[in-house]
Amino acid sequence: MTLTTLRVVFLLSLLGLAVSVGILLVTRIDHPESERFAAALAMSSEIDSRIDKEVAQIRLGRTLHYDGLVRLADRMAVAQGELSRPPAFVSGAEREELIAALAEQARLIEAKQGLVEVFKMEQAVLGNALRAFPHNAERLLQRLRAEQDAEPAVRAVERLEHDVLLHTQRPGAGLAARVRCAVAGLSDIGLAGKDARCEVAAVQVPPSLRPELDTVLRYALVVVGRQPRVDAITSKLMTLPVDAVTARASASYARAQHAAREHGRAWLIWTFLSAMTALATGTGYIIARLQTSARQLRLTTARLEEALAALRRERDRDLEIAELKSRFVSMTSHEFRTPLSVIPSSAELVSEYGEKWGKERRAEHLARIQESARNMSRMLDGVLLVGRAEAGMLEARPAPLRLGEVTAAVLREVGETAGPARRVEYECQAPDTAVWMDEKLLRHVLINLLSNAFKYSPADCPIYFGVRTDEHSAIFEVRDEGIGIPEQERDMLFEAFHRCSNAGDIPGTGLGMAVVKKSLDAHRGSIDVESKLGQGTRFVVRIPFLEEAA
Amino acid sequence: LTGKGELGAREADGYELFKSVGCASCHQGINVGGNLFQRYGVMEDAFDGRELAESDYGRMLVTGREEDAHVFRVPSLRNVALTAPYFHDGSAETLEAAVQHMGRVQLGTVLTTDEIDAIVAFLRTLTGELDGKPFATSAP
């Protein structure tokens, strides 16, 4: 995966994380709120059943006041207030269902509260009548019995009392009608109203007891009139299905809670997934970035090392060149001084005494001058060649040549310089056909090797010069029985201006072997050295034929 | 019902009458009333045939229901001695008149002067204090 893809996925998963966390926060179940609501639901159900119980207790006369009912109504109002605000996490169809159930519950509770108010009102009157009627009736009877000629009234009141008390236990329309008729017969103020079905004769009652009788009659009417009403109200308020509707609301709320929990779990999984993705891609991105920078660091380090090595090489070369220069200066100052002192002194002698001297002596000095000039010229050639090679400007320029002719010419040339006394074993197995080589470079190699062989071996020792070829190259062998090369100086052999420690007084510039090496390098040739100190040296040189194009 | 303190003999008689005559059917609970509504004139016409004013319809004015006509909240009797005149229309100047009227129209009982005095004596014990100071009376 590329860095860009990683970054995009990382940012996308961060976005997903933010969104799902946001949704989780908005739709999460607020537990205190949720618990408060559930508690209010349970509370409304409990209060409702306690209202029923309180009503029953009042009805039985076990509770004489309504404070309990009033307190329950207050508590119900508090619960209702809580229920009017369903928690925010309830949404959609569940919310509508819950709100509908709660509205139904509120309607029923209100209706019940209305019935409770009517119950309190009617029950107060009925309860008082039920309590006061027997008491007042008994007191009235006592007084009636004390009166004379009140027998019918006593009997009528006794019947009335009996009927009313019977009615409290077995309420019924027939009993109620009988009570009303009895009241009509006893009352002179038409308390029970006129009833055609009543055929009761008016009963005479002493006027002094009339107010007490009226009270008793009133209570009798209250009992038979109100008891069925209170019974009806009681049974109605107790059978209102508040409980069922509350249970429905509870079930609906439980479903809503379950749905919200499922919903929350789904988003929690999303949150987890996007968090994991963000973590993975973020880590991957960082690792990839680290790898990239590590690679770059390695590259930079390598480049730096390369540059350092180049600088080191440069410095080494500079040092070499500086050393070369100093060697050149010290060597040339010495080597050039010899011919430069020979030339003016010989020239002065010839010009001063030339006429007096014989021909031979003159020729000797002139030859010295010529020799010195040639030496200088050769030395300069060598210096130039090494310099050109150092500057990388020495190139082989091959041309067709016949090996035998070149080697013979070189041998003749070197032999002349060395003197006629030197013996050379010359062995040439070169073909007559022309090969492609650079004659100038070849001559540099051979002249230097041969003249060194002469120079560093005793005059009476012969040197060997062999020439042969194979398919691709020419092989030259130069052997002498001279002073040899010290083992430890083999490495310095091809350094310019280096002269071996055993060279002694033998004149030389230290350029010869350097020229040989540079020429061979330019011609892609190779050289092998075998040498034993004091016994002789053997050089084997291999120079490849060059193609015309090369 | 009445909290701490001992009732004198006459006030105790009044309390007994308060219960036996039936006042306590409605005037009950910790506040001696105030926890229900009741029709004004359970036993007899409370208005003695006088022309009715709007306020005489009581709770009906609030609920709009005809069955709530002449229904009023049963007042608490705490500090009742300080709150003359009585009833929603102030028709009773004294506690004695109010007790007599209530006995007749709500309980259908004609109370004797002696009974009324005893009940009033009891009602006077319902006067309390707030933060240790007696209440100001509403009567001039």
Summarize this structure briefly.
The complex is a heterodimer of chains A (550) and B (140). Chain A has helices at 3-27, 31-59, 67-83, 92-146, 151-169, 173-186, 210-239, 242-335, 337-353, 359-390, 403-418, 439-455, 512-522; strands spanning 399-401, 424-428, 435-437, 463-469, 473-480, 526-532, 536-544.
Description:
Chain A is of the alpha+beta class and 550 residues long. Chain A has 13 helices and seven strands. The two termini of chain A are 52 Å apart. The model of chain A has no long low-confidence stretch (mean pLDDT 87). The longest helix of chain B is centred in the N-terminal third of the chain and has 13 residues, at 9-21. Chain B is globular, with a radius of gyration of 15 Å. The mean pLDDT of chain B is 87. Chain B has helices at residues 9-21, 60-63, 95-107, 113-124; strands spanning 37-39, 71-73, 129-130, 133-134. The interface between A and B is medium-sized, with 22 and 22 residues.
Portion of residues in helices of chain B? 25-40%
Alpha plus pi helix count of chain A: 13
Main sheet characteristics of chain A: 5 strands, mixed
Total count of strands of chain B: 4
Strand arrangement, largest sheet of chain A? 2-4-5-7-6
Mean pLDDT of chain A, to the nearest integer, reads 87
Overall geometric form of chain A: rod-shaped
Radius of gyration of chain A: 72 Å
Mean pLDDT of chain B: 87
Helix-strand makeup class of chain B: mainly alpha
- Reading the helices and strands of chain B in chain order gives HEHEHHEE
Number of strands of chain A: 7
Unreliable stretches covering 5 or more consecutive residues of chain A: none
Tell me the distance between the termini of chain A. Answer: 52 Å
Spatial arrangement of strands, main beta sheet of chain B: 1-2
- List the chains of the largest interface with their residue counts: A-B, 22 and 22 residues
Q: Major sheet of chain B: size, sense and barrel closure?
A: 2 strands, antiparallel
Order of helices and strands of chain A: HHHHHHHHHHEHEEHEEHEE
Give the radius of gyration of chain B.
15 Å
Q: Any low-confidence stretches of chain B, pLDDT <50, length ≥5?
A: none
How many H/I helical runs of chain B? 4
